[in-house]
Batch of 3 targets.
Target 1
Amino acid sequence: SPYMVHLYDEGRRSVPGEQVLVLAHALCGGGEGDSGDEAADDLQRCVGQILKTFNGQRVHNLRALMQAVECGGRWLKLEMRSGDVVVLDGMTLEEQRAQVMEVHRIQKPMQLRDGGGGGGHSA
């Protein structure tokens, strides 16, 4: 998008390997009456938005975000640049991840290429 090019060209990156993290899509598990329904709705509302902080800290690339989620604790707070905030329950994260992976036939939860600050990614 022109905005992403602007961020890159204008030198807004503050550290080498910094990436603009955009929530491009949110997959849901499809369970009935899940406690995560509200969080799933919040995530859907944030699709297309740029991540500002995770648990109050800036993350500079996808690899750093993945590591922060793995160590995130009970509550996982994503604040978008727009000001929207999504809080996920870290206690149910693995269960929800497994359900999403089963419903959407995903073999690996995330896979990052080696090398570089964040490299590319594939799911």
Target 2
Amino acid sequence: ADKRLSLLEGIVLSLSPLLLALAMCRMAGDARADLTVTVVSFAFAEVASLVVLRTEESKYIFPRAALPVYVADVYYAFFHPFGFTWLAHSALYSFQAFLLLVLWNHFEAVVHLPCASPEQL
């Protein structure tokens, strides 16, 4: 019974984002492609934040800094559908990559300095 329950939980957790994205894209109508791009970007950000960012500071800052850009991207895609939506998506991808690099360099990358300066060695 435990094995069956864990299998069911795994299936639900793996299929629920896909089914949610499918349902949202069916409701979106003309903005289907823009919504798909945003959902894929959000999924990439979640995976990247779990894999790359390990410190509590990074995990605290990343979603709070990326959320306004996601809101702006969705707003622009839905209320300006004939505009330059590719530009909004490009800004989203660029900001997300920039934020990951800044957080990774500031909190994650640690350099261990030698105990003595190179001249003393």
Target 3
Amino acid sequence: MADVEDEEVAAPAEEPEEEVTDLNGAVKGVLKRALQVDGVIRGLHEVCKYIEASKAQVVFLAESCNEATYKKLIQALCTEKNIPMIDVPDNKSLGEWAGLCKIDKDGLPRKVVGASCVCVVDFGEEGEAYNFMMNHLGK
């Protein structure tokens, strides 16, 4: 039998949190942390279910969504349930931030799928991005 030595496994170094200077950077950071704890819901049907059950904490809606009824539905549900909604300029970037893409070996996103609507049910660890977003929402 071989001698087994106790080896210390180095904990993965935490990534330094990016400096948040605008709302889009805050949205990206919040979605990144929420993805780590499986707190991101994507797609119209799922988002509507979570809004109606009052489980959604914040909703992100892409301004580039070309379906007017889609936007009106999400806006009306958020207003009815008093859930904060943030407009994101591009649905491709929202899809990337929500994890709807493949990451290649260089760490660059490939095959990005657009997302017109995303909600967060669990923020995970609160950080600078979360605080910036809450200040923007006035909470």
